[in-house]
């Protein structure tokens, strides 16, 4: 699902909401209604353009465990950005590359998907312009997520569920070194750095309220096929859960 103000995204419409569900056929109608509700209850307003597509998934569903979660408090956006840079540096990414990549994120709110960044040079690799790469075909069943939160003594949070589901899929690929994200939603100021090595590290404040700039950066090694990496992110179905054989019926 995607929704925008002022027309389709391709014609200059402003992106205000997006989302997806990986669903069994029996649950399709319920999941469709959830996406409609999400699009038409966004804090940035009611969309004038709304589009939903349904694709049959043919590939085998992979089951992976969620990343560990930790939270770091930041007093203001400046401290939050500093913490994000420090967390990325812990993954061996240079200050020059981090600065170059974060400038891309800070200077635009038009990217509809993630930017793939060469962790050695800071150059963008996906060549998708404002479209970016949309991570898709991912799923975490609601009851399973709530059970996991209870086990980890975490508050059930829908925003965290969506972000953690995506980050877990991204970071499960061996090409990913780390992900940096903060939302383009002007009313949501929490961001994160995630990786297989360090888990999902939430930073409570990485921007000020009212700031509409945001997006995702995937820092990767440059020794594998980017086309194959993008195919995994966009097309390979993944379920997140606490059981080894967790699958949709």
From TrEMBL:
Its EC number is 6.2.1.14. It catalyses: heptanedioate + ATP + CoA = 6-carboxyhexanoyl-CoA + AMP + diphosphate. It is an enzyme of class 6 (ligase). The gene is bioW. Homodimer. Keywords: ATP-binding, Biotin biosynthesis, Ligase, Magnesium, Nucleotide-binding. Residues 8-23 have a biased composition (Basic and acidic residues). Pathway: Metabolic intermediate metabolism; pimeloyl-CoA biosynthesis; pimeloyl-CoA from pimelate: step 1/1. Residues 1-23 are annotated as: Disordered. Its cofactor is Mg(2+). GO terms for molecular function: 6-carboxyhexanoate-CoA ligase activity. This is 6-carboxyhexanoate--CoA ligase. Pfam families: BioW. InterPro entries: BioW (IPR005499).
């Amino acid at each position: 699902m995607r929704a925008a103000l002022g027309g389709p995204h391709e014609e200059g419409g402003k992106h205000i909401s997006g989302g997806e569900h990986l669903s069994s056929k029996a649950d399709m109608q319920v999941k469709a209604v959830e996406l409609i509700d999400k699009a038409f209850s966004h804090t940035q307003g009611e969309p004038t353009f709304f589009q939903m597509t349904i694709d049959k998934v043919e590939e085998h569903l992979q089951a992976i465990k969620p990343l560990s979660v930790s939270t770091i408090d930041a007093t203001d956006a400046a401290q939050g950005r500093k913490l994000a840079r420090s967390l990325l540096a812990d993954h061996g990414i240079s200050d020059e590359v981090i600065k170059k990549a974060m400038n891309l994120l800070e200077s635009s709110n038009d990217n509809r998907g993630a930017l793939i960044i060469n962790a050695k040079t800071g150059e963008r690799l996906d060549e998708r312009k404002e479209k970016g790469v949309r991570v898709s075909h991912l799923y975490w069943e609601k009851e399973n997520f709530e059970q996991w939160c209870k086990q980890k003594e975490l508050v059930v949070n829908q925003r965290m569920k969506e972000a953690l589901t995506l980050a877990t899929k991204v970071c499960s690929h061996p090409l990913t070194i780390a992900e940096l994200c903060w939302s383009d939603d002007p009313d949501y100021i929490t961001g994160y750095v995630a990786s297989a090595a360090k888990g999902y590290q939430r930073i409570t404040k990485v921007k000020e309220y009212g700031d509409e700039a945001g997006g995702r950066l995937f820092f990767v090694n440059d020794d594998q096929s980017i086309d194959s990496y993008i195919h995994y992110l966009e097309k390979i179905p993944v379920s997140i859960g606490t059981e080894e054989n967790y699958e949709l019926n």
